[in-house]
Amino acid sequence: MFESIFKALGEPTRLKIIKLLADRELCVCDLEEIMKISQPRISQHLKVLKHAGLVNERKEGQRTICSLNRKFLNNTIEQFEQYLSKPLETVPELAEESSRMPTIYGESCMKKYCEKVL
Amino acid sequence: MFESIFKALGEPTRLKIIKLLADRELCVCDLEEIMKISQPRISQHLKVLKHAGLVNERKEGQRTICSLNRKFLNNTIEQFEQYLSKPLETVPELAEESSRMPTIYGESCMKKYCEKVL
DNA sequence: CTCATTAATAAGTACATGCTTATATTATTA
DNA sequence: TAATAATATAAGCATGTACTTATTAATGAG
């Protein structure tokens, strides 16, 4: 979930789109004119942004009006900071890793060394 | 700058490393043991994270002890939110785009239409 | 209905990225 | 000094991604 959002943000064209949409909502052909890049390119990037939840769209005739989902973005950032702060053992996806967490750094290396010696 | 940071965060293995380092500093071989993935894979991902500024490292003998640069991360998030909030015309990289910004949505399309008609 | 406009999608291509295996580098230890 | 440990780097490969051009779909206007 964080992954798809960061991946969406980690691309220059999409970052530009985000910033432009932060100013006001725009239709695809507006973005085309403003950014001077091809229409399919816009559409493809918007698709990524929509799937990540960062951009909302509504249809208005033949136009697709896009807007930045600022609430979602702010919320995600907030959640990410909380995610980093919460105890490792409370993260289900990292249960295995958590169980292998050493109590001091370098312990793992020492363990490997000891296994060989013993 | 935001790009490299988001790109670094937009990858599952690196996100895991970030979360593990949020718990405590770890050397490469600790990460290897904890995550059960190959050493070059760890080193390569750490390189990306270091270049993005997210991870610091120090040498301790033959060990490379890595730590999350939490201050930098928090600061970046803060800056990103400010970046999105500040007026478009104050962003140098988007000066061109800003100058082409329409006053109402769909204006660009209308412009194109008018050009043809006239 | 026909044609133009807006947008989405498909196909193809070049380049980027993540991984593996193998090797090089540096520091420790015997 | 020789051997080992920890890490970095190189090379090769497979997959992913961003772009282009071409096509399709849907809406609106004449």
What order do the helices and strands come in, and which of them pair?
The structure is a homodimer of 118-residue chains.
Chain A (H helix, E strand, L loop, with lengths): L1 H8 L2 H12 L2 E2 H8 L3 H14 L2 E6 L2 E6 L1 H16 L9 H5 L7 H11 L1
Helix pairs in contact in A: 1-4
Chain B binds a DNA duplex (30 and 30 nucleotides) through helix 3, helix 4 and helix 7.
Q: What integer value in Å does the Rg of chain A equal?
A: 22 Å
- Greatest interface and its residue counts? A-B, 57 and 58 residues
CATH topology of the domain at 2-71 in chain A: Arc Repressor Mutant, subunit A
Order of helices and strands of chain A: HHEHHEEHHH
How many extended strands of chain A?
3
Count helical runs of chain A.
7
Strand order of the largest sheet of chain A: 1-3-2
Mass-distribution shape of chain A? elongated
Determine the N-to-C terminus distance of chain A.
44 Å
What class, by secondary structure content of chain A? mainly alpha
CATH architecture of the domain at 2-71 in chain A: Orthogonal Bundle
Uncertain spans of chain A: none
